[in-house]
Design brief:
single chain; about 240 residues; alpha+beta; Immunoglobulin-like; four-stranded antiparallel sheet; three-stranded antiparallel sheet; 5 helices; 10 strands; binds zinc ion; nucleus; mRNA splicing; zinc-finger; Matrin/U1-like-C_Znf_C2H2; SF3A2_dom
């Protein structure tokens, strides 16, 4: 520390710590306080990025070390955002699709993950020029998702889901899950999904943080002859 420039020194007496020193003390106090109350492994907002610095996913701030992050968690900005998020979650609680959709099978859902909202999305209808099969291309935007966390897709029948009651067998649901985002469900016609490689695929573009999913439906004819050798391709050929 540069004692020459310390406030008070030039007037001949120590005593008064500089503003800088006070801030350092304060940060250290806050860091200790935070360490007592926060387990970084369980903090849903704590994120170590690929360049080795730390991010608060709630406030979208960057910190050079964990101490600085911890001090941040005690600050007004983070506390305000926490309160705001809690209020929002309470409001949305009843509409949390994931809980409702997975119902009793929600074992895999970690309770300490706080959801940060739904991804933006685009859907394009497609038609295979050769087979005339109808399809859909989904584009979901996950700007705050960690690059190594690829979203997951799961199809669910009308009877498996718990959101729409009574279930309508003319529909099925495509779920896209990527924590800490809320799980999205798209309601699709109940026609069988063609699982061949070029007809059904997903791709996580970790650079632009966009998740792509392309779904092609079997035609009525293909559904009818599905599994009959030589007539229509079966699942996962
Ligand atoms: Zn924060």
């Amino acid at each position: 520390m540069d004692y020459q420039n310390r406030a008070g020194s030039k007037f001949g007496g120590g005593g008064v710590a500089s503003k800088e020193a006070t801030n350092a003390d304060r940060r250290e106090r806050l860091r200790k306080l935070a360490l007592e109350t926060i387990d970084l492994d369980k903090d849903p907002y704590f994120f170590k990025n690929h360049v080795g610095s730390f991010e608060c996913r709630l406030c979208l701030t960057v910190h050079q070390n964990d101490g600085s992050y911890l001090a941040h968690t005690q600050g007004r900005k983070h506390q305000t955002n926490l309160a705001r998020r809690a209020a929002k979650d309470a409001q949305l609680g009843k509409r949390n699709e994931e809980g409702a959709f997975t119902g009793a099978n929600a074992i895999a859902v970690r309770k300490n993950v706080v959801k940060i909202g739904r991804p933006g999305y685009k859907i394009n209808k497609t038609r295979d020029p050769v087979t005339r099969q109808l399809g859909l291309t989904f584009q979901l935007q996950y700007p705050d998702l960690a690059p190594e966390t690829a979203p997951k897709v799961r199809f669910m029948s009308a009877y498996e889901q718990k959101v729409e009651d009574p279930p309508d067998k003319n529909f099925q649901y495509m779920l896209v899950a990527a924590e800490p985002y809320e799980t999205c469900a798209f309601k699709l016609q109940a026609r069988e999904v063609d699982r061949r490689e070029d007809k059904y695929w997903t791709w996580w573009d970790s650079d632009s943080k966009v998740f792509w999913a392309h779904v092609t439906f079997k035609t009525e004819r293909e559904e009818r002859y599905s599994g009959v050798p030589g007539l229509a391709p079966s699942k996962g050929r």
